[in-house]
Amino acid sequence: MDESKRGFLKIAGCSVLGVLGAAGMRTATDVGPGGKAVESSTTLSGKKWGMVVDSQRCLENEGCTACIEACHSTHNVPNIADPKEEVKWVWKESYEHTFPTQSHEYTKASLKEKPVLVLCNHCEDPPCVRVCPTQATWKREEDGLVMMDQHRCIGCRYCMVACPYGSRSFNWQDPRNALQGGINPEYPTRTKGVVEKCNFCAERLAKGQEPACVEACRKSAGAGALLFGDLEDPESEVSKLLSEKFSIQRKPGLGTKPQVYYLV
Amino acid sequence: MMYDGSKILLGLVIFLIAVTFPFWFSWVNEKSGFVPEPKLPEGEESCVESAEYMKALHMDLLNQWRNAVVRDGRRVYVSSSGNRYEISLTGTCLGCHSNKAEFCDQCHDYVGANPFCWDCHVDTSVSRGEGK
C-alpha cells in the first residue's frame, strides 16, 4: 500500500515538473493551419529595461525637443494644443511637479522652474496594471515593460487615475485628424476612445534598435542625456552610471518602483 | 360560393408576387447576381497559407497574429510550409495586397462585414492616393 502511494507521488511529481518545464520552455505559439509564431532573431534581450535621464545635461540644451519629436513622429502621437485633450508619450514637466517630494520652499530658483523630461516609468509594481479591468495593460514579465494592448482597451481610464505620474493620455478625438506631420506607416495610429502611453519602443527593441528618443538624443546637441539599457546587467551603461552617480526616482514613496532614473 | 372571388384571387396573386420578389428580381435583374471579385496581386504565387485556408479563415489567422505580436512579442510567422514572414498587417498583408479597396473591401462590403482594423492600422494605398 505504502509502496504504491510512493510510486504514485513520484509519477505525479515528475509529471507536474515536466508540464511546468514544457510551459517554461514554450518559445513558439501555434498559429493558423500548422504554422507558428516565433520571436524575431533581432530582438534585443534584456531582463529589466530601464532609462537614465541626465537632467543636467538635458538642461544644457534647454530648448531641445529632439527626443519628443522623434518619439511622437515614430508613434503617430497626435499634436493637440488643447491641454484637456492633448496626447503625449514623452514631454517636459517643471522640476517642482516632477519631484514634488524633492522640492521645497527654498529649492533653488534655477532648478524649480526648470523642465525635466518625463515619460512612462515602466514601474516594477505598476498601479495602472492593477486596476485595468480588461488586462489591456500588463507588465511583460520577461523584460519589465508595461505594455498596452489597444485592441483590448475599453477606454474606462482607470489606469489614468491610478498612474501617479500622468503618463497616460486618452484619445478624446480621432487622433488622425491631428497628425499634421503625416502618418508613419510603420506604426499604427490609435482610435478615438483608447488610452495610450510610452511603450519603451517595444517594436524597435524587437528590431534590435534602441528607443527612438534615446537615438534622437544621441544625435542631438545634448548627446547622451538619455540612456537606455538592461538594469539587471551590471555591465550595461545604465547600471554603471547608477552605481557611480547619485540618482533619484519620481515619487519613490508610493512604492511603484519606477524604472526611469534621474541624475540631478 | 366564394364572395368577391376575383378580389381574393387578385390579392393572392399580388401576395405571391411580393413573397417571391427576391427570387424573380435577381432572375430579372442581372446586376443583383453580383459576385465580389477581389483583385489578387500580380506576380505573387501564394499567400502565407493556402488560398482555401485564407479565404475561409484569414480572420482567425489575423487574430492569432495579433495576439502573438501584442501579447507574446512574437513577430515572425513560420508558415506550415516553413516560410518566414514578419507579422504585420500593413507591412506584410498590404505589402502584396497593396490596394485595400480592391481586395479587402470587395468581399467585406458585399457581406456587410465591417472590421475595425483600419481605424488604427495604416492603409498605405490611401496615403499613396490610390485607395478610396
Topology:
The complex is a heterodimer of chains A (264) and B (132).
Chain A: H1 2-24, E1 29-31, E2 35-38, E3 49-54, H2 55-60, H3 66-74, E4 90-94, H4 95-98, H5 109-112, E5 115-119, H6 127-131, E6 137-139, E7 146-148, H7 158-162, E8 169-170, E9 195-196, H8 202-205, H9 212-219, E10 226-230, H10 237-244, E11 247-248, E12 260-263
Parallel strand pairs in A: 3-12
Antiparallel strand pairs in A: 1-2, 3-10, 4-5, 6-7, 8-9, 11-12
Chain B: H1 5-19, H2 21-28, H3 51-72, E1 76-78, E2 84-86, H4 89-96, H5 104-111, H6 117-120, H7 124-127
Antiparallel strand pairs in B: 1-2
Structure description:
The complex is a heterodimer of chains A (264) and B (132). Chain A is of the alpha+beta class. In chain A, 29% of the residues lie in helices and 17% in strands. Chain A has a single domain, classed as Alpha-Beta Plaits (2-Layer Sandwich). The model of chain A has no long low-confidence stretch (mean pLDDT 92). Chain B is mainly alpha-helical. Chain B has a domain at 59-127. Chain B has 7 helices and 2 strands, in the order H-H-H-E-E-H-H-H-H. Chain B has helices spanning 5-19, 21-28, 51-72, 89-96, 104-111, 117-120, 124-127; strands at residues 76-78, 84-86. Chain B has a two-stranded antiparallel ribbon with strand order 1-2. Chain B starts with a helix and ends in a 5-residue tail after the last helix. The relative contact order of chain B is 0.10. The interface between A and B is medium-sized, with 31 and 35 residues. Strand 2 of chain A pairs antiparallel with strand 1 (76-78) of chain B.
Question: What would a concise description of this structure say?
Answer:
Chain A has 264 residues and is of the alpha+beta class.
Features:
heterodimer, A: 264 residues, alpha+beta, Alpha-Beta Plaits, four-stranded mixed beta sheet, two-stranded antiparallel sheet, 12 strands, B: 132 residues, mainly alpha, 7 helices, 2 strands, 5% strand
